Structure formats: C-alpha cells, structure tokens
TrEMBL record:
It comes from Candidatus Marinarcus aquaticus. Residues 1-26 form the signal peptide. Pfam families: DctP (PF03480). Keywords: Metal-binding, Signal. Na(+) binds at W214. This is ABC transporter substrate-binding protein.
Length: 357
C-alpha cells in the first residue's frame, strides 16, 4: 500500500512538473507569422494599419509573436488574400470583404453598403449590435476569422472625365467601383470593373476606364486622378468602408490564450487608429484643394440620379437576398441597427452641424 501511494505521488509530481514545463515552454516559444495585404508598400493609411498592428503585437508579447507584413508587390495577388489565408500560405491577411462578392456573397456587407451606416454606427453594430457574431458566422465556412481592420469613413463618389448631369451621361461609361455599389451602377447602364489599387492610375490614363472611385481626398490626390478626370463627386456608395483583418482559424487556435488576446487587442486599436489617421489626411488634403488644385471641380450627383441609385439599390438588395439566408440575416441586422442608431446620429451630429455651419 505504501509503495502504491509513493508511486502515485511520484506520478502526480511528474505530471505537475511536466505541466509546468509545458506552460513554461509555451511562454518561451516564439511564433512567427506572415500577413498578406491587398495594398502596395506606400499606400497609407491602408498599409499602416497592419504594420502598426504587427508592431503593437511584438511589443505587447515581448517578442513572442512576430508578424511579417507583405505588401501586394511581394506576393503578387492583391485580390487573392482570402484564398491565401484560407489555404494557410499566410496566417493573416488585410483586405476588404466586398472584393469577394463573386466568391461568397455572404461576405459582401461587412465592408460597407450603399446608403448604409456611418462609421460610428457601423462600429457600434460590429461590437455591440451583433455584427461581429454574424461576421464570424459568415467566415466560418472558410475556416477564417475576421476582425475590423480600419475604416475610411464616408468615401467620395468618384472621379469622372466629364460632368454628370443626367442618367444618360452615365450610360456606357466604364467605371472602377467595387462592392454592391458596382451592381447599382451597372443597373444604371455603366460597365463596371474592379481593378487592383496599383493599376488604377494607369487604367484611367490609358482609357481602359472612364471613371473611378477610390477613397477620399487624403488618399486620392496623391494618386493623381485629378490630372485626367477633374470632376470629383461626393459620396453615396461607401459611407463606412471597413477593411478586414483575416486570421487563419487553425493558426489562431494554436496560439496561447494570452497571445490570442494580444492579437485581438492590437487589431482593434490599429483599426481605429487608421480611421482617425485617414480622417486627418482627408481634412488636410481638402483644405489644400482650392489653392493647390484649382482644376478639381467638386460636384454632387443631381437628385434625379440619386433617386435612381436608391431605387436600383433597393431592388437589387431584394433580389440578392433571395436564396441566401445568411446574407439576408446580415442585411436585416444592419438595416434594423441603422434605423435605431440614425435617430441619435441625426440628433447628435446632423442637427449640430446644420445649426453651426
């Protein structure tokens, strides 16, 4: 009996020592990941978001999680981020969900939707209105986790070679405009295409496209679009464009719990930092337009065109949701939250601005 007790004690002690050793080893192990982006190496602030996230993770983990960020010029697949993360070539990615509407329509709404929520409304929906749960549900079939990766706020409606006065002026134009807004414009008679960021200026210069939308003045002016297409229209199609961090689910589960928490926290902080960085860039660029870029003509689409866009948008939403129950669940959730939040947005922001401009 004493021998059995001694053996049991030794076994328990060995197990405890082994457990402590395993925990200690986990604390000492260095995890090296790589992240692929849709963006070129100088495309601020888009490329800054994953870079800042990686820096924060390295510091907060005391060097236990190292993430190397690869811009699109390295991996040569700007619009292939989802497939690369899903397949395990990269543990992480940074892109935008609406680029994959042709691959999986359920992922489309997590970037933005025409006439949808503003950035504060959308962030509230993600973190407190059920949006995060729906996004993980949509990405689960790809074995990928998705997290907000930085917001542009309300984007401009695009650069056009000629002024758009009527619906007839739109018909036949070739335009780069991604996401669901592209479907709306196609319904109004445009030929719509999606082109990687690094090819936009060349496509416009060579006449491959007649118009394009990118982001806003902070990012657009330095791209030089105004040299070819000087008519710059205000937005309707992307009121809160949220980029996405994608994480291979299997790789994430292999991380110790503390590194998982560090990664999630760094993604959240860097996404908000991109939002305010882009806001500052646009405010600065807008202040310089009148004096430094006098050829740029700021325009708003006429009411007749806006009404046609809203009508086309509503019809297409109804058509698109048919046969896609998860997509309908997401769209219904967004619409309900927008209806609730918009009352406060009007009271807190719109009426304040209306009375003080």
């Amino acid at each position: 009996m004493n021998m059995l007790l001694k053996a049991t004690k030794l076994t328990v002690a060995a197990a405890l020592i082994a457990g402590l050793s395993t925990a200690a080893m986990a604390k000492e192990r260095v995890y090296k990941w790589s992240l692929a982006t849709t963006w070129g190496p100088t495309l601020s602030p888009f490329i800054d978001s994953p870079k800042k996230m990686a820096e924060m993770v390295k510091k907060m983990s005391d060097g236990r999680l190292i993430i190397e960020v690869d811009a699109s010029n390295k991996h040569k697949a700007a619009l292939g981020i989802l497939d690369m993360v899903k397949g395990g070539q990269y543990e992480m990615g940074h892109s935008a969900s609406y680029y994959w509407k042709g691959k999986d329509i359920d992922l489309l709404p997590f970037t933005t939707m025409p006439f949808g929520m503003t950035a504060p409304e959308q962030y509230a929906w993600f973190y407190y209105g059920g949006g995060m749960e729906l996004m993980q549900k949509a990405y689960a079939k790809h074995k990928v986790l998705s997290f907000p990766g930085g917001n542009t706020g309300n984007q401009m409606g695009g650069w056009f070679r000629k002024e758009i006065k009527t619906l007839d002026d739109l018909k036949g134009l070739k335009m780069r405009i991604p996401g669901f807004a592209g479907e709306v414009m196609a319904k109004l008679g445009l030929t719509v295409t999606n082109i990687a960021p690094g090819e936009l200026y060349t496509s416009l210069e060579r006449g491959t496209i007649d118009a394009l939308e990118w982001v806003g003045p902070g990012m657009d002016i330095k791209m030089g679009f105004h040299k070819i297409a000087p008519y710059y229209y205000t937005g309707w199609h992307e009121p809160a464009t949220e980029l996405q961090f994608l994480v291979n689910e299997r790789a994430f589960k292999k991380l110790p719990a503390d590194l998982q928490e560090i990664l999630v926290t760094a993604m959240k902080l860097s996404s908000y930092d991109m939002y305010i960085q882009n806001y500052d860039m646009s405010a600065q660029a807008w202040s310089e337009i009148a004096t430094e870029y006098p050829n740029i003509k700021i325009k708003t689409f006429p009411k007749s065109i806006m009404d046609a866009m809203k009508k086309a948008n509503a019809e297409l939403l109804t058509e698109m949701a048919q046969g896609h129950p998860l997509l309908k669940e997401v769209l219904d959730s967004q619409a309900a939250y927008q209806k609730k939040a918009r009352v406060w947005t009007e009271m807190s922001d719109y009426l304040y601005l209306k009375d003080n401009l």
